[in-house]
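In the previous chapter we treated chains in isolation. Here, by contrast, the input contains two separate entities that must be folded as one system, with a combined length of 479 residues.
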Amino acid sequence: MFEGLRSIIARDLRLSMRRRGDVLNHLVFFVIVVTLFPLGVGPEPNLMRIMAPGIVWVAALLAAMLSLQRLFASDYADGTLEQMLISAHPLGLIVVGKIVAHWLMSGLPLTLLAPVLGLQFDLPQQALGVLTLSLLIGTPVLSLIGAVGAALTLGVRGGGVLLALLVLPLYIPVLIFGAGGVAAMANGLGAGPHLSLLGAFLAISCVVAPWAACVALRVAYD
Amino acid sequence: MKATTLEAHADGRGNPLLRFAAPQAFFPLAGKMIPWFAALAVVFAVGGLYVSFFVAPTDFQQGESYRVIFIHVPSAWMSMFLYVVMAAWAAFGLILNTRLSGMMASAIAPTGAMFTFIALWTGALWGKPTWGTWWVWDARLTSELILLFLYLGFIALTTAIDDPRRAERAGAVLAIVGVINVPIIYFSVKWWNTLHQGASVSLTKAPSMAATMLAGMFLMALAAWMYSFAAALWRVRSIILERERDALWVRERGGEA
C-alpha cells in the first residue's frame, strides 16, 4: 500500500523537476510580492519590523495558492487522473501522495526562503526561528486545504479566480495564527499557543482535507 | 438507484417523510406552505418592530442607537444558523443522493448571504455611535466577514459549473468544509475577547437585558426564521421547475405554476 504512496510522490516530484521553471517562478513571485510592500508602504524600519510577519505570510499564502493549479490540472488534462481513480490503489492514498509532493515543491521552498526575507525586514533572531517554524507547520495546511479547492474547480470555467475565491477564506485562520505567532515572539510573548493552534489546524486538515478532496475528485468525474 | 426508489414514494405509498423527498411531491407542498410562512413573517416583524421601537426602554448607556440590535442580532443568528442548515442539506444530498437536498442547499445560500450582509451592515451602523468607528478588526466581525466570503464562494462555485448535479455535489463538499468555520465564529468571542461585547443572551446565565428588549429580539428572530422558510421554499420551487422542466408533471402543469 505504501509502495503506491511512495511511487506517487516520486512520480510527482520527478515531473516537477522536469518543469523546474514552474517551481522557481512561484518562489520568484513570493520574493517579488514581499518586495512590493516596502515600496508601497515606505521603508520606515520600525513599521517594516511590525509588518514583516504579516507580509511574509500573505505572500506565502498567495504563492501557495498560485501553485495549486499544478496539483491536479495537468493529470486531469491528459487523462492520468482518471486512470488513478479507477486503479486498484485507494484514492485517498493517491491524493495524500500528490499533496505531499505538492508541499515538497511549494511549501518547503517557501519555508526555507522565508528567513532570508525576514532578515531584510530586520526581524529579531527568535522571531526568525518562529517564522520558519510557523511556515513549516502552516504551509502543509495550505497544501491540504488547497487540494480540496483544486479538486472542486477541476475543468470549471474561470477556475483560477474561482479557486482563489474558495480557498483564500479557508486560509485565513492559518494566516492569523502563523503571522500572530511571529508577532507575539517579536513582542516578547511566547509563540507557543499560536504554534499549538497551527498544529491543531494541521491535525484537523490532515483528517478532513484528503477525504474532501477525494469526494470532490469523484464528483468531478461523475 | 436511490433516486428511483424515492420516486416510487411520490405517488403516496410508503413513508410520508420520504414521499416529500421527491421534487414532484414537494413542489405543491412548498406552494401551500409559502403563504403561511410569509404571513407569519409579516406578523412577527410588525409585532417585533412595534416592541423594539415603542415598548423597549431606552438604553441608559447607548441611548436610542442600541435599537439596531433588534435587526443586527437576529440576522447574525440567522446567518450562522442558515450556513449550518445549508451544510446539513448538502451533506444529506451527498450521503443519501436525494435530489431535493441539493436543491434546498442552493435555495438557502442567497438568503444566508443576505442575512450575513445585513448583520455586517447594521453592525457597522451600530459601531459608529457606540465604538466611534465603522469597523474594527475584531475576531467576531472578521469571522462574520469570512462567513460572507464562504457564502459567496458557495454561490460562485455552484453557478460556475454547468451540470446541475455536479454543481450541487461540489457545493456540498465546500459547504461541509466551510462549516468548520461556524463554531470558530461562535467561540471567537470567548477566545479573543477584544472590543466586541460578550454574548448578551445566554441560556445558562440570567440575561443582561430588560425583558421587553429580549421579547422584541425574539419576535424579530422569529420573523427572520419565517422569512427564511418562505424565501427558501420560494426559491426551491423555481429550482425544481428549472431542473425538471422536461419531466412530464411539469409540462402537464403548464401555465398554472
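Chain B touches chain A at residues 94, 142, 146, 149-150, 152-153, 156-157, 160-161, 165-166, 169-170, 173-174, 176-178, 180-181, 184 (CB under 8 Å). The radius of gyration of chain B is 21 Å. Compare these points with the single-chain example from earlier in the chapter.
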